[in-house]
Amino acid sequence: MLKDWLGHHHGHHSSRVHRLPAAVKLGAALAIIMGTVLVPWHWHGWFIAVASLLALAALFSRVSPLFLLKRLALLSPFVLGVLLVNAFQPSMRGSWLGFAARSAICLFTVVLVSNTTSFSRILGVLRSVRVPALLITTLALMHRYLFVLVDESERMRRARASRTFSPRRRVRWHMLGTLVGQLFVRASERAERIYAAMCARGWK
After folding, report:
1. Per the confidence metrics, is the pTM higher than 0.90?
2. Which of 1, 59, 164, 203 is a plausible cystine mate for 198, CB 3.0–4.6 Å?
């Protein structure tokens, strides 16, 4: 299910990592990402230490390693594109491995924190550090609206699959294009209804 990729499918597990304060986890993640980006590549001890720390955190979190690797694989194509471009540049050929290692560490940090911390707690940390309320509200609405879109797309997919009996690939691509178009129209209509309902309840 797509919800398993968008939601905290493993976020309800009870472990030491899950019970850590959200501010501590977010602060540690920020420090790891900033350090990984800024530390020179020849400081191999830093990368080994960070990778070991993340592996221990993943072990103590009791989140399935396969699930974490799937999440990492889902985000990897965005990094692979940049990596391939750098690999073919003469000035970057010697540093593409370092770029790949930095990207993997940063992505794994984000994946691990996002699956051991509920989104509401993350928003609470942002609120405590004086992030503008409008931005926090927008993030909360976007996160909630993702699940609405997933439910709508799943209903449309099932309805279309029950009416389509042709196994031809051309028909499948046509069906997918139609679903995307219909989902965009329905999402726009639902967004207008939600906005009107919020305004009717005094939201500004």
Report:
1. no
2. 203
